[in-house]
C-alpha cells in the first residue's frame, strides 16, 4: 500500500513509497558515497529476456559491475540497473542478470559522487550548484509517485534522488534536446535525479522497478572505481 505523504522538502519530486524499514532500506555499499521522451533519442532496445548485451555500448567499468553482480548474485534476486555517470547511460537487467535495454540519461549538473549530508532536508532553492550531484554507490530502490500521480523510482529517499521520466522543469534547460545529443556534457543538468527517456522508462523501468524493490549501481565520476565498488574491482 502506497503512502501519500509527500517528501517533506521536495514534494514536487515524488511521494514516499512503501514502508520498507526504518531506514527505508537504503543501502550504500562501498560508497566513499515534462514527461515526454524526445523522438529520435538513441535508445537501444532488446527483447525481454535477451542475453546479448551489446557491450560495445558499455564502458569497461559498467561491464565489470555487471560481471560481478551476475557472478556473485549481488542483486539478491532483484532486477538491477547500472547508471554509468561518465557515459551518461543506463543499462537495465532482469533479476536473472539478462540484459533488457540501455539508454541515455540526464544526471546531476555537478560532478561528484556524494550527496551533501543534509541535502534532502533543504528546498531546491537552497541547493548550491556544486551540490547538484548524483551520488555513486549501490542502492536498493523503492517505487513511488510524484504529486502528478506519475510513478517514479527512489534511488536514495533521504537525499531526494530518484529515477524518473524526463520532465521539463524550465524550458531553458532543454532537457529533451539534451537527451538527443551524442555528447555527455549536455546530460548534466538536474539537481541530482536521473531522467530517462519516457519510452524507455515505460518499457523497462516501470515494469521491473515500479512495483518492487530493485538494485541500482551508480558508477562514480570523480572517485576511483575501487573506492566505491571494491569487491567488483577484480571482475
Describe the structure.
This protein is α/β, with parallel strands linked by helices. Helix content is 15%, strand content 21%. It is built from four helices and twelve strands; from the N terminus they run βαββββββββαββαβα. The chain has a six-stranded mixed β-sheet with strand order 1-4-3-2-12-6, with helices on both faces. A hairpin with a 4-residue loop joins β8 and β9.
Query: Can you give the helix content as a percent range?
Result: 10-25%
The proportion of residues in beta strands is: 15-25%
Approximate shape: globular
Please state the CA-atom Rg, rounded to the nearest Å. 16 Å
Low-confidence stretches: 1-6, 11-50
Largest sheet: 6 strands, mixed
Number of strand elements = 12
Chain oligomer state = single chain
Distance between the termini: 39 Å
Number of helices: 4
Average pLDDT level: 81
Structural classification: alpha/beta
Q: Notable features of this structure?
A:
235 residues, six-stranded mixed sheet, four-stranded mixed sheet, single chain, globular, alpha/beta
Draw up the topology in text.
Elements: E1 44-45, H1 60-72, E2 80-84, E3 89-93, E4 99-104, E5 107-108, E6 137-140, E7 142-145, E8 151-156, E9 161-165, H2 175-180, E10 188-190, E11 194-196, H3 198-209, E12 215-219, H4 225-228
Parallel strand pairs: 2-12, 5-10, 9-11
Antiparallel strand pairs: 1-4, 2-3, 3-4, 6-12, 7-8, 8-9
What would a concise description of this structure say?
This protein is an alpha/beta fold. Helices cover 15% and strands 21% of the residues.
Amino acid at each position: 500500500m502506497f503512502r501519500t505523504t509527500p517528501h517533506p522538502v521536495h514534494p514536487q519530486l515524488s511521494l514516499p513509497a512503501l514502508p520498507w524499514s526504518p531506514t527505508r532500506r537504503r543501502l550504500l555499499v562501498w560508497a566513499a558515497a515534462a514527461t515526454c521522451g524526445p523522438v529520435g533519442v538513441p535508445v537501444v532496445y532488446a527483447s525481454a529476456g535477451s542475453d546479448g548485451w551489446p557491450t560495445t555500448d558499455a564502458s569497461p567499468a559498467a561491464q565489470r559491475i555487471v560481471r560481478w553482480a551476475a557472478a556473485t548474485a549481488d542483486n539478491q534476486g532483484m532486477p538491477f540497473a547500472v547508471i554509468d555517470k561518465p557515459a551518461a547511460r543506463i543499462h537495465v537487467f532482469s533479476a536473472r542478470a539478462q540484459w533488457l535495454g540501455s539508454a541515455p540519461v540526464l544526471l546531476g549538473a555537478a560532478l561528484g559522487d556524494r550527496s551533501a549530508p543534509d541535502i534532502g532536508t533543504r528546498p531546491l532553492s537552497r541547493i548550491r550548484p556544486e551540490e547538484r550531484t548524483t551520488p555513486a554507490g549501490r542502492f536498493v530502490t523503492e517505487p513511488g509517485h510524484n504529486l502528478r500521480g506519475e510513478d517514479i523510482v527512489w534511488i536514495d529517499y533521504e537525499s531526494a534522488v530518484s529515477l524518473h521520466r524526463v520532465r521539463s522543469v524550465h524550458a531553458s534547460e532543454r532537457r529533451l534536446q539534451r537527451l538527443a545529443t551524442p555528447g555527455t556534457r549536455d546530460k548534466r543538468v538536474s539537481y541530482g535525479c536521473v531522467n530517462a527517456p519516457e519510452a524507455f522508462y515505460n518499457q523497462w523501468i516501470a515494469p521491473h522497478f515500479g512495483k518492487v524493490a530493485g538494485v541500482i549501481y551508480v558508477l562514480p565520476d570523480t572517485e576511483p572505481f575501487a573506492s566505491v565498488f571494491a569487491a567488483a574491482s577484480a571482475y
